[in-house]
Amino acid sequence: MAFDLEILKTKALAFGKVARTLIVETKGSVPREAGTAMLSWKTGQLGTIGGGALEFSASKDAFSGDYLKTIALGPNLGQCCGGSITLVNEVFDLKRLNSIESKNFYSRKITGNQDKPFSIKCIETEIRNGKNPFHDLLYSNGWLVEAVKTHRTPVWVYGAGHVGRALVQTLSPLPNFKVTWLDTSRKRFPNDLPDQTDILYAENITSLIRYAPNNAIHLVLTYSHEMDLAICHKILETGFNTLGLIGSKTKWVRFQRRLLALGHSRQKINRINCPIGDPSFGKHPQAIAISLAAELLQQTEQKQNRALEIR
After folding, report:
1. Residues 89, 120: contact at Cβ < 8 Å?
2. pLDDT score, position 262
């Protein structure tokens, strides 16, 4: 987990103030782990710290100000979990968010008059010197330091049909991804768009591909095979991270033949993953979405771990 400055600024810009409730320590049996955060604003919420009485209480107190609180889940809230959770709650507006100086970490005193602990000072020095690929949090004696999240993998989803809707609903809440949803008309999208999702639409959907980042994951699942082919053809002409195509094995055989005829090399065509999703999950839209999201999470986690090993 990390301090997601981008999401906080987006919410603060839209709603003025946003409360962030973070689990910094746990003991015993608890519903969520340290590093789990929940955002609250006047009309909504993003994320969960475990639901139930704990989350209800935290949501109720979210705008009461900054605080640090340790809660014994059984005695204090009557929950079956036998452990305890230490929460840090902070209320942010744009002025406060813009005052955060470091691009890599956010260090601050939460409570008390204690001087900055040695452990916090060490982490800060190591990060500044590039010796510590810090991507977590450290809480010590009233002080807290967190990695600042600076990157979310862009995912471009083509098609607002049943599978597209299920996939976007599944991916959008995940902090790993920044979802862009594309189709041929605004009418193709639901009125209630998922949080943190951008939409793009044009009658010629391939004209939008030039706006995609070179590291984008592309997932092609429109209502038309011809459109799917045109999108794949265009993406193969650009830089991309990965490219997934929904369809049967028969569709994939035909697409390989047609993409070869369009001048693409076998090596480049083989970068397309088709069919997408784990077939053992079944063909229900939500089943495809869940299996594909799990696959993408594993891929991004593996890449992050490799990057940390290299550093």
Report:
1. no
2. 96
Q: Is 268 left (phi over 0), alpha (psi -120 to 50) or beta?
A: alpha
pLDDT along the chain (311 residues), means of 10: 83 92 91 91 89 88 91 74 88 93 85 86 85 77 85 91 95 87 95 88 95 93 95 94 92 95 95 89 91 88 47 35
Residue partners of 268: CB distance under 8 A and separation at least 6: 236
pLDDT at 149: 77
Residue 282 pairs in a beta bridge with: none
CA distance 72 to 70: 7
In terms of C-beta density within 10 A (0-12 exposed, 13-18 middle, 19 or more buried), how is residue 275 classed? middle
> Cβ neighbours of residue 250 under 8 Å, at least 6 residues apart?
none
Domains and CATH numbers, the chain: 3-149 (no CATH), 153-302 (3.40.50.720)
Beta-carbon count within 10 A of 160 CB: 24
Strand arrangement, sheet containing 197-201: 197-201, 177-183, 153-158, 217-220, 242-245, 272-273
Q: Give the C-alpha separation, 212 to 289, whole Å.
A: 22
Angle of helix 225-236 relative to helix 249-261, nearest 10 degrees, comes to 50
